Structures are given as structure tokens and as C-alpha cells.
Amino acid sequence: MPHWSVYTGNSEPHDGIEQLPAPPPWRAFDGGPTLPPPRDNDDGAAVSPDRVHRARTYVATAQSVQLVNAALCLRRPLLVTGPPGTGKSSLVYAVARELCLGPVLRWNITSRSTLADGLYQYDPLSRLYAARPGAGADAPHHGAGGIENHLRLGPLGTALLPHDRPRALLIDEIDKSDLDLPNDLLNVLEEGQYEIPELVRSARYADDGDTADVLADGTDRPVTISRGLVRCRAFPFVVLTSNGEREFPPAFLRRCVRLKLLRPGREQLTEIVRAHLGDPDDRAESLIRAFLTRAGSGELATDQLLNAIYLTGVAGLDTESREDLAAQLMPYLSAAADGDGF
To answer: pLDDT, tens digit, for every residue of 7-35?
Structure first.
């Protein structure tokens, strides 16, 4: 029997995503033809060792497990906010690994990012060059006017392909975007589809069919797009991260499941250290206590603690030197905070 809670947070891979209940009627999608999901490395893309480590060692909270499952069941994006170093971006890697969703697609947002950047990139100059007389017999001109040879789907565009199980997409630091980007995302995430105008126009005049084979993000294997329309079948697991540097429009917020991550307490910090570096010894316990004390009066990130424990552990320092080095490795992130020692 289908069960809505398919993500457990224990990091062990399984096929529970196949037990996910049917989507709500207003979130059902019927894109096709269906594409099989890529497993790790199946598409020829190298999976970075650091991302594998992050996925294996992520320590989920009960709240994050519950809201991840809510986003999966409702087919809604998950908006994750919280201070730096609380594991916002690591969450999507952990979910993708446990539910066997394939390599995570990643879109890093800057102030110049636009919706088109996430959907696809088109290079008209390379097409113009290929079409010149004398460009060579190997210059591609087949299918939809040869346009597909100068197109590549972006991470968002790839996530919305009609896969038979969700792809995992990280839209990182959405709060750094231009003011218009969250609103621009609304229709695409609501409808689960988008058009590529260059292919739509070319399909009207193509002599050899209305389909085009286009490369997708993270792979050299082309996917077939009909009449320039891409529509998902399994809505992707979309995680948008934010450091809380700006407010989002109400229309955007109501379309997201919202998860706010808090700074980890002592018990969770100990579990995080154990997952990354093994059981903490007395030196590590001392640094955890110092980290919690300092975090009470300024902004610190968990990876600063991990750096301090790792380096002071391998350096073979005495207690005084170890504490001095740890103080240098754990400066406050806010310029307004006092960065002195413990």
C-alpha cells in the first residue's frame, strides 16, 4: 500500500519512491515519452566525492524528514531557509541518495540569473557559423533546422523532462536572485512545463519531422523534444535554499513547502561530528562545548567546528595550542561580532 512517508533520513538507499502515493489531482502531470531515471554515473557524469560524502553523512531532523515527505507527496518545491552551515544544500543530496533519484542537478543563483538560464541555453552565433558556406561537410543541419545542435537544457529544464521518477534539483541561494526571478519561476513550477521558442518556430517549417534531439544538463546523451514543448511526468524534487537575506512574494511562498533549519544543539552536533569524523573523543567534546558557547554570542557555521576538530586532531598539539588554533578556525561570520578567543 502506498505510504506518503518514503524518506526516512537514515541515508540507506532504497526504492521507496515507487511507493509514493498518486499526486493530488491538481498536481498530476502527463509528459512523455517517459524517460528512465539516471542512476549514479549511469549518464557518464562523474559524481563528486565530496557530494557523495555529504549525502552519506547528512544528519536529518524529524522536522526535515516530515517536510521532505510533504514536498514529495504534494509535488511542491521545498524552500529551505536557515543560517549558513546548517545543511540546507546537503539535504537534497541526502534525499537523492536515499531515494535513488540519480545525480543532483544544481543551479547556483546569482544576481544576474534569469529563468532562461535555468531552462536552456541557445547559442545563435555558433549556429550562424555552422550554416556559413564552407563551414565543412560535418556541420550539423539535420532536424528542426539544426537548432538542436546549438541548444543545451539547463538544470531546471533537465529536471522537468518526463522522467518516470523524480529528478532532484537544487536551486541554491535563491535569495541572491534578481527581484523578478521568484515570480518568473511561478508558472514553470506550477505547470511543470515550458516551451523552447526556437524549437517551436522551427518545428512549423521542418521537412524532416517536428522532433529535436537536445543535450540535457550533466550528460552527453540527447533527449527527444517534440514541437519544442517539455512537460514533466514525475514532478522533480526541487529544493530552493535561502539564507534569509530577503523576503519572497506571497504567491511564491504559498506554492512552496517551507522548512526552516535552526542551529544544531549539542546532541545533533555530536551526531554530525560522529557521521563525518567518527566517535568524538575528549578533545572533540571540548571543542563542541566551546563551539556552543561561542555560537551563543555570534554567528558560527557547523563546518567551522568540523574543520577545528579535524585539524586539531591531526596536528598533535597540546591543549593550549589546540584551543588557540581552534579559535582561529572558528571566527564569527558577522563582522559585528567579537572574534577573540574562547
So the answer is: 999 989 999 999 999 999 999 999 988 98
pLDDT, residue 336, reads 52
Please say if the pLDDT value at position 177 is more than 80: yes
CB of 186 closer than 8 Å to CB of 174: no
pLDDT, tens digit, for every residue of 59-68?
999 999 999 9
- By three-state DSSP, how is residue 111 classified? coil
Kindly calculate the radius of gyration of the chain based on its CA atoms and give it in whole angstroms.
Answer: 23
Query: Which of 260, 276, 311 is the last residue before a domain boundary?
Result: 260
Q: Do residues 221 and 44 touch, judged by C-beta distance below 8 A?
A: yes
Q: What is the pTM of this model?
A: 0.87
Q: Do 192 and 231 meet the contact criterion of CB atoms below 8 Å apart?
A: yes
Omega of the bond prior to 33 within 30 degrees of 0, cis?
Answer: yes
Residue 338 lies in a domain: no
CA distances from 13 to 55, 204, 277 (A): 11, 45, 21
Q: How many domains does the chain have?
A: 2
Count of Cβ atoms closer than 10 Å to residue 34 Cβ: 13
Element (H, E) at 275: helix 266-277
Q: For residues 58 and 192, state if they share a domain.
A: yes
| Residue 294 confidence (pLDDT) above 70 | yes
In angstroms, the Cα distances linking 49 to 46, 52, 90, 93 are: 9, 5, 13, 12
Q: How far is CA 137 from the centre of its chain?
A: 41
What sign has the CA pseudo-torsion 128, 231, 173, 272? Answer: negative
For residue 226, give its domain range: 16-260
For 16, the grid coordinates are 521507496
* Selection from 51, 13, 97, 38 nearest residue 218 by Cα: 38
Which of 217, 244, 260 is where one domain is finished? 260
